[in-house]
Amino acid sequence: MERDQTEELRALQDTLYFIGGKWRIPVINSICNGNRRFREIERSIPGITTRMLSKELKDMELNKLVKRNVYPETPVLIEYEPTEYCRTFGKIIMEMINWGREHRRVIVEDR
């Protein structure tokens, strides 16, 4: 089967655009690890600002990666959950984690 390099490049660029930010993967990882409330997510990611987390969550909601649930309680309770579409990215994240671990091992051993 012949590969379409133009289409492959477009797909890679779409993926890199999606994961290119510093915070996107950590936010997805946090939510998929069970953190549902804004402050839980924020506390689980050292260095992220409230403003940046808010921006990332809004963008992820627009891209159908998280679902925002609002519960009419006092005070209002808002929770985020990964969509099934977002969960399809889990295998990629795990491969990135495994690659990062192996890369660190290779670099440390060469020193």
Rounded average pLDDT: 90
Going by CATH, the homologous superfamily would be Winged helix-like DNA-binding domain superfamily/Winged helix DNA-binding domain
User: Shape, please?
Assistant: globular
Estimated structural class: mainly alpha
Low-confidence stretches: none
> Hey, roughly how much beta strand do the residues contain?
5-15%
Chain oligomer state: single chain
Pfam families: HxlR
GO molecular function, one term: DNA binding
Domain HTH hxlR-type: 10-108
Keywords: DNA-binding, Transcription, Transcription regulation
What does this structure look like?
InterPro entries: HTH_HxlR, WH-like_DNA-bd_sf, WH_DNA-bd_sf. This is HxlR family transcriptional regulator. GO terms for molecular function: DNA binding. Residues 10-108 form the HTH hxlR-type domain. The structure is a single chain. The model has no long low-confidence stretch (mean pLDDT 90). Strands 1-2 form a two-stranded antiparallel ribbon. The protein has helices at 5-19, 24-32, 38-44, 50-62, 84-87, 90-109; strands at residues 66-71, 77-82. By secondary structure, the protein is mainly α. It has one domain (5-110): Arc Repressor Mutant, subunit A.
